Amino acid sequence: MKKVSTLLAVALFSILFFGSSVTKAQLIPGTFGLNTQFGSEASELSMLYTLSNNFEVGLGVGYESASTTTDGNSSDAQNTIGVNAYVAYFLSKGDVNPYLTVAFGIMMPPKITGPPEITKNTIDVSFAFGGQVFITKNFAVYVEAGVDYNISSTTTSSTPEVKSSDNLLSLFTSAVGASLYFW
Average pLDDT per run of 10 along the chain, which is 183 residues long? Predict the structure, then answer.
């Protein structure tokens, strides 16, 4: 959590420092790019495409690593890979762009071999508000905060088969990231 707080502070400083400079860039329709994000839920790398001066869409791969502690005993970290898609709407044009975003993701942790064998899947929907600052003509950094709704289902192959589902609503999730546009 301390890393995320430090990253957020650096991103906010960058927004304030570089946001007062002369206009460097804005979103150009039909532009492709790369986006990387480090968040409180997971990290991701995605391809992005700008539909207009205000709309950006992206498709990417997410990564999450988590370990659990039970009665003081730590277990091995569970690494999870998933896919995600997002749509961002930018509220202004220029060096400093506030935006709203909606994201959808599916995470697929590896099966836990048993007996019993455990299969888990997670669907994630998030809404966020953020600010993006162009450092150069085609490189921007951003910070965002939002709400995340997580639906997790678990199937245990035992006799009888056991299925369970967990729903988690996380408020004030945060993320920092960078986008590189190619034009």
Answer: 62 56 68 89 88 92 73 70 92 88 88 76 91 90 92 81 83 91 86
Looking from the CA of 85 toward its CB, the CA atoms found within 13 Å total 1
Q: For 137-171, what is the HEC assignment?
A: CCEEEEEEEEEEEEEEEEEEECCCCEEEEEEEEEE
First to last CA, the chain: 36
The stretches of 20-144 forming alpha helices (DSSP H) are none
- Give which of 37, 82, 33 is closest to 62, Cα–Cα: 82
101 neighbors 88 (Cβ within 8 angstroms): yes
Residue 36: half-sphere exposure toward Cβ, Cα within 13 Å = 3
- pLDDT at residue 74, rounded to an integer: 62
**Distance from chain centroid for Cα 162:** 31
Task: Tell me what pLDDT residue 42 has.
Answer: 74
Q: What share of the chain is helix, strand, coil (3-state, %, to 5)?
A: 10, 65, 25
Structure token pair of residue 105: 């993701």
pLDDT of residue 15: 56
